[in-house]
Amino acid sequence: MPDIVMYATASCPYCVNAERLLKSKGVAEINKVRVDLEPQRRVEMMERTGRRTVPQIYIGERHVGGFDDLYALDKAGELDALLGL
User: What's the pTM value of the predicted model, to 2 decimals?
Assistant: First the structure.
C-alpha cells in the first residue's frame, strides 16, 4: 500500500470523513500533517497543492484532493486501485 499523507486540522469534519473512508478500505496508517499546529506546513500545502482548504490528500505521489475528490474516486471504483487493493 502506498504512503498516504493528509494535510488536516483538528476541527475539520471533512478530514474525519476522509480518514474514516480510508480506514474502511483497510488503510492502517495515515501520515497526518496538522496545519493548525504548524502554520508553515499550511504554506507548504498551498504551494504543493494550489489549494487552501483541508483535507488535502496524497496517495503515494498522486494528489487526490479533498474529501469530495476522494469520495468521488471511491464511487467511480478507482480508489481501490490507487490503494493497491
Answer: 0.93
Per-residue model confidence as pLDDT tens digits over 54-85: 999 999 999 999 999 999 999 999 999 999 98
Decide if 74 contacts 64 (C-beta within 8 A): no
Determine the straight-line distance between the first and last CA of the chain, rounded to whole angstroms.
8
**DSSP letters along 23-73, please?**
HHTT----EEEETTT-HHHHHHHHHHHS--SS-EEEETTEEEESHHHHHHH
Domain borders along the chain are 4-83
Contact by Cβ (8 Å): 83, 1:
yes
Tell me which CATH code domain 4-83 carries: 3.40.30.10
User: What three-state secondary structure class fits 6?
Assistant: strand
